[in-house]
Write a structure and sequence with these properties.
Elements: H1 3-16, H2 28-40, E1 48-51, E2 57-62, E3 65-70, E4 76-78, E5 82-83, E6 88-89, H3 90-104, E7 112-114, E8 122-128, H4 133-140, H5 142-147, E9 150-156, H6 165-175, H7 179-187, H8 201-211, E10 220-223, E11 228-230, H9 235-244
Parallel strand pairs: 8-9
Antiparallel strand pairs: 1-2, 2-3, 3-4, 5-6, 7-9, 8-10, 10-11
Helix pairs in contact: 6-7
Length: 250
């Protein structure tokens, strides 16, 4: 991917994000980083500028990406920053903090939750489309995830966007009297009766864009700590990945 194409992707993602938070006065290094990035990508909405773990650089958070800018603003790096001693992906770890904060802000009444009978050991958030094949495969095994102590919280991410059949099915499920039953039936291939009501699908979709759900990238799965687990994993693979988060590696 070329430098200019990468910066264009940052600009595109930034336009999908919410209005950035108000920051206190920048330090000289932060001001230099802000100036360097906004001169290259004027439409970028910067969420945060912080001292990077790498000496001499600031880390600039733009939506679901981080770029590293030298304290004098002369150099910009894109890519993963790895701590070789701790064997940790520092870029992913920092982004996960923001994802966790945003997911934790989603109230329970905006989720469709399938939880174990007892206290869950793990919780995952799944951005889902009613019709995508791997989304349906995942939900067909929902009892097995639950048996392994995994709570599955669904948010909608219709692949067609906020219009079309995918959106209509998501809205019909949300507006049903029994959302979980309607959700399960729709995942099994039944077309839900068309219903309309106030719904959070646009909010879910915008949140997915903010935290890096790719186009047509459903299911897109996040752990409770904000780590991105990727797409479909079978119940045993999912449990193994969640357990592995206790000892993160490169």
């Amino acid at each position: 991917m070329s430098f200019h194409v990468s910066l264009l992707r940052i600009a595109t993602l930034s336009m999908l994000c919410a209005t950035p938070l108000v920051h206190a006065a920048d330090t000289p290094a932060q001001a230099a980083a802000r100036k360097a990035l906004t001169e290259l990508v004027p439409q970028a909405k910067i969420d945060a500028i912080e001292t990077a773990p790498m000496p001499g650089f600031q880390q600039v958070i733009v939506g679901s990406q981080i770029v590293y800018v030298s304290d004098d603003g002369k150099y910009i790096l894109q890519g993963r920053l790895l701590d070789t001693l701790k064997q940790r992906d520092l870029t992913e770890a920092r982004l996960a903090l923001d994802v966790k904060k945003k997911l934790d802000a989603v109230p329970a009444n905006r989720r469709i939750v399938f939880a174990p009978a007892g206290k869950p050991q793990y919780r995952i958030t799944v951005f889902t489309d009613i019709d995508c094949g791997y989304c349906r495969k995942l939900h067909s095994q929902i009892a097995e995830y639950n048996k392994r102590g995994i709570e599955v919280d669904y948010l909608f991410y219709p692949r067609s966007g906020l219009t079309g059949e995918s959106y209509d099915k998501a809205m019909a499920v949300w507006c049903a009297k029994d959302r979980k039953a309607s959700f399960t039936a729709a995942k099994a291939g039944q077309t839900p009766p068309l219903l309309k009501c106030d719904n959070p699908i646009a909010q879910d979709f915008e949140l997915g864009n903010q935290i890096g759900v790719p186009n047509f990238g459903t299911p897109s799965i996040f752990a409770a700590d904000g780590s991105k687990l990727g797409g479909y994993l079978d119940p045993d693979q999912m449990l193994a990945r969640l357990k592995a988060l206790d000892t993160p590696t490169l």
